[in-house]
Design a protein that fits this description.
Blueprint lengths: L4 H7 L6 E4 L3 E5 L7 E7 L6 H7 L1 H18 L6 E4 L15 E5 L9
Antiparallel strand pairs: 1-2, 2-3, 3-5, 4-5
Helix pairs in contact: 2-3
The structure holds adenosine monophosphate and zinc ion (ZN).
Amino acid sequence: MAECLFCRVVAGTLPATVVHQTDRVVAFRDIAPQAPTHVLVVPRDHHPDAAAMVAADPELAGVVLAEAARVAEQEGIDRTGYRIVLNTGPGAGQTVFHVHAHVLGGRPLGWPPG
Ligand code: AMP
Ligand code: ZN
């Protein structure tokens, strides 16, 4: 998917500030952070959204969550609390159609989100 933004990050052809990577995911800082820590955990495989990923490869969904938790530990926000967000569909604010988990923390996070 050469035209997909996050496939390009995964391929290394679009620069990103990578904070963690494995054989299955790449985690990098969001270009427009909404919190002191705002990291995107992106599977290397292209799936358009969370529902498509879990339908095609349910194990990968677990991997993405596990790596999101690992990023939170690495960023030092696991003790204060953090939010993992998977916007799914334009109505929920999804703008990049390569599934990604936002890991947000480092400040108090209200609920419900705005
Ligand atoms: P969503 O709205 O859930 O699809 O999230 C897409 C996120 O990707 C937004 O928070 C953007 O700020 C972020 N984003 C877009 N382009 C880049 C990029 N080149 N590098 C890092 N983050 C990006
Ligand atoms: Zn992609």
